[in-house]
Each structure stands twice: as C-alpha cells, then as structure tokens.
Design goal:
Layout: E1 2-5, E2 12-17, E3 20-26, H1 40-44, E4 54-56, H2 57-62, E5 73-75, H3 78-96, E6 101-102, H4 117-127, E7 133-135, H5 141-151, H6 155-162, H7 166-172, E8 175-179, H8 199-209, E9 212-217, E10 228-231, H9 237-250, H10 256-262, E11 263-264, H11 266-273, H12 284-291, H13 295-307, E12 310-314, H14 325-338, E13 347-350, E14 380-382, H15 386-391, E15 396-399, E16 402-405, E17 411-415, H16 419-422, H17 426-432, E18 438-443, H18 448-451, E19 455-458, E20 467-470, E21 476-480, H19 493-503, H20 507-511, H21 516-533, H22 541-547, E22 549-551, H23 565-569, E23 583-584, H24 588-593, E24 620-623, H25 636-641, E25 649-652, H26 654-659, E26 667-672, E27 675-683, E28 691-693, E29 735-740
Parallel strand pairs: 6-17, 7-14, 8-9, 8-12, 9-10, 11-23, 12-13, 17-18, 18-19, 24-28, 25-27
Antiparallel strand pairs: 1-2, 2-3, 4-5, 4-19, 15-16, 20-21, 21-22, 24-29, 25-28, 26-27, 26-29
Helix pairs in contact: 3-19, 4-19, 5-14, 9-12, 9-13, 9-14, 12-13
Bound molecules: ligand MGD (2 copies) and molybdenum atom (MO).
The site of one ligand MGD has 34 residues, from strand 9.
Length: 741
Amino acid sequence: MTKVTSSHWGAFEVDVRDERIVATRPFAEDPHPSAIPDILPQAVHHRSRVSRPSFRRGWLESRERTGRGGDTFVELPWDEALDIAAAEIDRVRKAHGNEAIFGGSYGWGSAGRFHHAQSQVHRFLNTIGGYVSSFASYSTGCAQAIMPHVFGVPFLQLNYEHQDGWHTIAEHTETLVMFGGVNPKNSQVSMGGVTRHETAGWFETFAEKGMRCVNIGPQRTDAPDGCEWMAVRPGSDTALMLALAYVLETENLVDRDFLGRCTTGYDRFRPYLLGETDGLPKTPDWAAPLTGVAADTVRELARRMATTRTLITVAWSLQRGEHGEQPFWMSAVLAAMLGQIGLPGGGVGYGYGAIGGVGKSFKGLRGVTFSQGQNPVTKFIPVARAGDMLRRPGEAYDFNGRRDTYPDIRLIYWAGGNPFHHHQDLNALHEAWQKPETIIVNEPWWTATAKRADIVFPATTPYEREDIGRSNFDDYLFHMPQLIPPVAEARDDYQIFAGLAERLGKAQEFTEGRRAGEWLRVLYHAYQGMARDEGVEVPDYEALQEKNWVRLPIQMEGPNRTLFAPFREDPEGAPLPTPSGKIEIFSATIDGFGYDDCPGHPVWLPPSEWLGTATAAAPLHLVSPQPGDKLHSQLESALADVEGARPETIVIHPKDAARREITTGDLVRVFNARGACRARARVSDDILQGVVALPTGAWFGDPGTNVDPDGNPNVLTRDVGTSRLGQGCSAHTTLVEIARL
Ligand SMILES: Nc1nc2c(c(=O)[nH]1)N[C@H]1C(S)=C(S)[C@@H](COP(=O)(O)OP(=O)(O)OC[C@H]3O[C@@H](n4cnc5c(=O)[nH]c(N)nc54)[C@H](O)[C@@H]3O)O[C@H]1N2
Ligand SMILES: Nc1nc2c(c(=O)[nH]1)N[C@H]1C(S)=C(S)[C@@H](COP(=O)(O)OP(=O)(O)OC[C@H]3O[C@@H](n4cnc5c(=O)[nH]c(N)nc54)[C@H](O)[C@@H]3O)O[C@H]1N2
Ligand SMILES: [Mo]
C-alpha cells in the first residue's frame, strides 16, 4: 500500500508492507521536499520504542524519587498501569490541589489535528480540575512578551497575518537586511505541516531580480548562497542596529514625518542614541569593537537602507538569548526611522525562514480544533522558567509587569515534548527533576525524558492512527490514514487519557461518549461548515478519506500583503492597539515596570556570556541552532545509528581549530562550568572566529556520564530568563571551551 501523509516537515508518500513502513518518497507537488522522512522506516520500528506501560522500580516499590534516570523499569499490563496512575493523580490533587500538577507539557509532538498530544493532555487535566500551565514557547517567548507593547498586535499574528508575504517582497524590496539570516533549512518545518517548501525558491527569484540580500550573523550558512555575509558577534545585534540608527540620525536620513505621524517616544530615545543621557554616542566606531563590524561598513549599509526600499528581517534566534527583547524592539525603531513601515516590501518582519509558513499568504480559514476545555487553575509560568519553578517553589519572580510566585509542583504530566532535549542547563534540570513526587510521560520512544519518568505510557506515532492534517499556514488538507497497527502495545494519547478519565469518574466529560473515529468526523464536519461560510468548499469526510489530500483554493497570488499599510495611510483613523495608538519607540507601560534589564526604550545591554566577556576558561561563543536533518530530538534514535553520525557536528573557525590542533572529523569535548559533551569537529570559515555552532537535538545521555556522549548543547547553555519582561529562553547566550579528545 502507498499513501500520502502529512507531518511538521511536510507531506510525503509512505510504502507499507506486512504492517511495516518500508519506504518514504517525496510528495509530488512539493518543489523542495525535505529529506527528514528518509529515516522514518527505521525510526518508527526502532528498538527504542516504548513497548508497554513501564514503571520506574524505585517509584513502584517505595515511591522513592532520587533515582530518576538511573533506575530500571517494570512493565505492567495496561489496566493495572492505568489504575496505579489514576490513583496517584487522585492522591496528589486531593492532598495538594490541582495547583500541584504541572501540565504545561511544552513540545511539538506530531502533526495531526485530533491526536495532538498537548490538546489531549490539557483537555484531560482540565476535566479533572486543572493544572499549572505555561505561557508562550521556547521559540518566541520573549518576542511574545515585548512586541505587543511595540506594535499592539500579538507577535505570532504579526508574523503570519500582517507582515509582507514573499510575493510582495519579491516585487518591491531592493535591500533585504536579515539579522540572523533566513534559512531554508529551518523553513523545512512548520507547526502542523508545510506542504510546498518555497523559501529556497524565493531566494532564487530575489537573486534574479537583483535584490541585495545581507545576512547579518555569526554564520554564512544562515542564508542561501548568493547572499552577502556581514559577520557579527552573537548577542551584539542591538549595538549594530543602534549604530545604523546613529548614522540615519546624524546624516539626516531619518523620515521625521513618519516618526511624527506614526510613532511615539522618539524624543525619549534620541538623547540616548546621541549619548546625551549616558555619555556614549552610539556611533559606528562605538559599535565596531562590540559587533566586530567595521564602522565604514555600517555607514554604507545605513545609507543604502535609507535610499532603497528596505525590509529588515529578524530571526527568532535573536530573542533566544539574554536581553532578546532589545534587538526585537530596536529593529522596529530602526524600521520606523527609515519610515518604510506600511510601504510594500519595506519596514520590518520577523521569523522569515524560521518556519515554513511565514511569508506565505493565504486567505484566513479557521482550523480543525479539538477543544481543550477550561482550566480552573489560573496559575501559569513563562514556559522557559520550568527549571526555576521546580527549584524555587513559593518564591517570587517578575514577568511582563506582573509579580507572581512559583507553584509547589508534586506531579508532572508530559505528553508530546522532550524537556531533556529542549531545556537549558540539563544537568541542573536533572537535579531539579528529582523533587516532584511523581512524573508521568506519554512517549513513543525512550527519550531522555521518558527515562527520567516514574510512569511511561507508550504512545502511538501518527502512522499508527487516523487523523486530519491541516495547518492554518498551509493550503493543503490531508486525511492522514492509519498506515500500520500500533507498534507493540502503544496506544493513542486519546485512549490513554480516556482510560485515566474513566478511572477518575470523568469519562463522559473527556470523551463526550465518542471514540477517536467519531471525533474525527465531528471535528471535520464543523470545519467543513466553517470553510463553507468562508466560501471554500471541502469534500465530505469519506471523500477526503478516498482522495487522501486536497489543495485548498486559498492562495493569494501577486503582491498582496503589506504590514500596517492602512495604519500608515491614516494613523488616526486606523490606530494600532497600543496605548498611544502608534508604534511605541518609548513605552510608558514598560518604563512603569521599572526593570533595569528592560527599560522604557531599546538600549544596548551586553549579555552576561558573549565574546565581550570571554575568559580563558570559556573563550568561545556557542550558538545552538535547529538541526537540519530532523525536527528537534525527533527520529533521533534511528539517526544516531547511522555510522559516524554521532556525536553531533560542531562547526569551528580554522584559526580557533588550529590553536587547539583540531581538524575536521576529530572528536572533541565541548565544556564549561555547567557541563560537557562530545562532538565531532567540522572546520569551516563559514563561521565567525570565536564562535562555534552545535545544533540541538541529540538525546541527552544517562546520568553519571560526565561528558554527554552524543552532543546535546543544552548541557552547556544557561538557564536564565531573557529579562524580567520576557523571561524567554536564553540558549544562545553561552560561552564554552573545546579540546580534542
Ligand atoms: N540550546 C537550544 N535549545 C533549544 C532551542 C535552541 O535554539 N537552542 N530551541 C528551543 C525551541 S525553539 C524548541 S521549539 C524546543 C523543541 O523542543 P521539543 O518540542 O520538546 O522537541 P521535540 O523533539 O519535537 O519533542 C517532541 C516529543 O514529542 C514526542 N511525540 C511525537 N509525537 C507524539 C505523540 O503523538 N504523542 C506523544 N505523547 N508524544 C509524541 C516525540 O517523540 C518527542 O520526544 O527546543 C528548544 N531548545
Ligand atoms: N530542520 C529544522 N527546522 C526547524 C526546526 C528543527 O528542529 N529542524 N525547529 C523549528 C523551530 S521550533 C523553531 S522555533 C525555528 C527557529 O528558527 P530560528 O530561531 O531562526 O533558528 P535557529 O536555528 O535557532 O537560529 C538561526 C541562526 O541564528 C544565528 N544566531 C544565533 N544567535 C544569534 C545572534 O545573537 N545574532 C545573530 N545575528 N544571529 C544569531 C545562528 O547562527 C543560527 O544558525 O526553527 C524551526 N525549524
Ligand atoms: Mo521552536
């Protein structure tokens, strides 16, 4: 049998023989298919699958909690396993209340609208009284806090619904200034799926049109070949942006009319820019030693930006570091000074390349959604503060103008995420993780997180269940057929939670009396009605099953979307939803919070770890980007089997390598005071001297291994919020040393 299915990395064909996935092939309509599914046959049937419900021996026998990660597991039959888990959940909620249950459960899980692990776990926990949740994402947590203060619009809405689409950029942009690049490697994936991979193709078009594309960041490879590379030290972008702004201000290249009509607070920012408030004019010469970019290069770029249609783009990675609020806010100020916000192909935009859907323009069509219900518990944490939450119960912390205390968590339920891949400072997380009384994880594979749980329920993968594939940022609709039976005794998350809900007397609330197949039809029917209301006909469920997939007629061709065009046209008549109705260069709201790590207008704040604070013990800046060959830590067990694939590859500059007598292919130890991992060196001048890059995604090793064997960079990263405002993930703020092994 051959069928098409969808995934976060796109659609692909699957060959099935004797109830096994034997091969995958690209989807015919995808111009640049991802190679990620190549490994799927090995991964789905890998020996690292969780076969049966498993209990950590120490927990099962004596509720002992210090052995997480180092213990053996006992397999039990499903009924008994669900009984024990339900009784434990019941005990915790009765003894400590639902505020003692952490169900934030961050992670990407798999595509598919019904069997979406987060929706399932949240709905379940809501039916039994609620859980402590988490706000935003590791991807854009900091931006989601700061950017609404600046533009008034939720950050992701800005990315997906407002900012210029590729068509508009291709038509109008003359200079594309990309902080952190725009990397087709990253746009291979999108939450819920990206069917046509178009980013690389757009850059071919830009090149044909003679667009000048400048990649500003530590790695040449962050943008397609043919783009200029302006190497800049990680963490220093705000200084560079300030220097560009200084040139605009002092060479009279600022659009004062735009500033007057559409912004507020330039008068508060300008004295800082000119050094009147701190004695430090933010000149290109001031910035040069901070950024590593020559002053003349900055002047030339500023003049070019002021005299051509210029779009500034900012990669999400820039806010995944300490003070990540600043380059995001400052990019908006710089764009405002240029006065091109609201003109097609000009202004500023975020996350192009981060995710396949950004830059595409479709008519809005609501999605297929399974209701998570209402959470009676209002307590939440900023998502990346999970480690702090476990370490500091009852202690106060700041977040975006509010002061709260961390809850005292007794039980953690995680489904569809891998914190021992994604969280920073994993050795510290491992310590903190020993504190809760019980940890339950649903997982298809024995990940580092599953190995550190007390109860592991084996979950199916999307290939083992029927689902609907649909993303709001894509123009395809899929019936995702069940391709193979569940591997070993795996069950769908839905079935697992239905079993727990039943034991807790909430079967009806959770299932509403429906089986998964019935839910699919109910959800699809609602979606079909909504689509019809929007003028889009989609086939009946049975017809979609038969067809396998359809392309929806929702594409917007030609230049079609310009960020804040109506606002520019008429700032009084179409104000932004900020307190002033304008773009906030100075925010009285933020100023009122009184945060020294995020004051009332953008400022240069050096991170605690960057090349400016390099020491003999940790002289290199580590960036840990997303892996090109997979999604985060998914499919990792099969990839790690490939001869020579592990440990992960770390990119290092020839001069840094020579000093350490490292050559390409050498095994190295990467280390700092927080931890150490192995990696395999690749010497390349595609990276700025002083910077090394090790992608995320290797599975974190077992406790007791001092040097993480496969190369997970999060043994090295710092677990600290971006600032009291955003409290986002600061993974890119890390210094390390490297030695040959
Ligand atoms: N150093 C550093 N760290 C980072 C980042 C960085 O840039 N640098 N980036 C951060 C970012 S942006 C992100 S988004 C995170 C990503 O971190 P995660 O989203 O946690 O990573 P994934 O590997 O996608 O984890 C998903 C897990 O869900 C499991 N899964 C898949 N399908 C199902 C299912 O149907 N049911 C269940 N129960 N489980 C399923 C997978 O096997 C996998 O273990 O990493 C963050 N960490
Ligand atoms: N193939 C694949 N694609 C993915 C993912 C994946 O796991 N695999 N994950 C997806 C997810 S969840 C997300 S959130 C997005 C993330 O998308 P991004 O945040 O854009 O991606 P990253 O790979 O973290 O970082 C991109 C580049 O930023 C540069 N960089 C790091 N720090 C700085 C800095 O301070 N200044 C400048 N100028 N550049 C810097 C690094 O050189 C790095 O290669 O990617 C998505 N795409
Ligand atoms: Mo992400």
